[in-house]
Amino acid sequence: MDREPTISRDQSRTASKGRGPFKGVGRDVLVASICGGVVALMVGASYAAVPFYNWFCRATGFNGTTQVAISAPASGPIARKIAVRFDSNVAPGLPWKFEPEQSEIEVNIGQVVTVFYTVTNQAARTTAGQAAYNVAPLTVGSYFQKINCFCFTEQTMAPGEKREMPVVFYVDPSIADDHENDGLNTITLSYTFYPVRDPVVKPLASGDDDKRKGNF
Predict the structure, then answer these.
(1) How confident is the model at residue 56 (pLDDT cuts 50, 70, 90)?
(2) Each residue's pLDDT tens digit, 100-130
(3) Structure pTM?
(4) Which residues contact 129 (CB under 8 A, 6 or more apart)?
(5) Cα separations in angstroms, 39 against 26, 42, 44, 48
(6) Which of 80, 165, 201, 204 meets the CB 3.0–4.6 Å disulfide criterion with 208?
(7) From start to end of 15-80, where are the E strands?
């Protein structure tokens, strides 16, 4: 009776050594793929976190972020008054002079008010900026409603240009129902202009260029 072929112990050891490196390579590729996927997920999450945070602040008034309204409040002004102070700042790298025309006003809650900030480009070149904003106390952000504001868009200033920039706002009458704000007498609206390195170039319709130059 023929014997079945057998593999010696040395041959078996040699065969296992030959398979080992391939197993190691496969494992390394798998680990590298997992690590790469985790890194890509983290990078994607970090980019998504910024717009999500901005959306969250706008939606809830978190961190003193003001709200955007499309019209005056339906209920109209109420008798309660509140003082609104105006603060202005310019970040390093932007050669602008930026200040409110009034430092403080008193308004009825629910009253639509228009105030102006004055901006002057002190550079001998065209510069652009974008305003960040909030109100204090930070818990009032959800009640401070802006109908129009220069902070909604980038602002591009010609050399030496001076411009009045309006803010149209009201304090939502529903703040009177929030008893945590019963003792609130003053709101501070604060802006900080930051330089825009690559401003958005807006196309001009025929004839608009001459009109814009006339406003400088």
Answers:
(1) very low
(2) 999 999 999 999 999 999 999 999 999 999 9
(3) 0.63
(4) 90, 94, 96, 154, 155, 157, 193, 194, 195, 196
(5) 20, 5, 9, 14
(6) 204
(7) 67-68
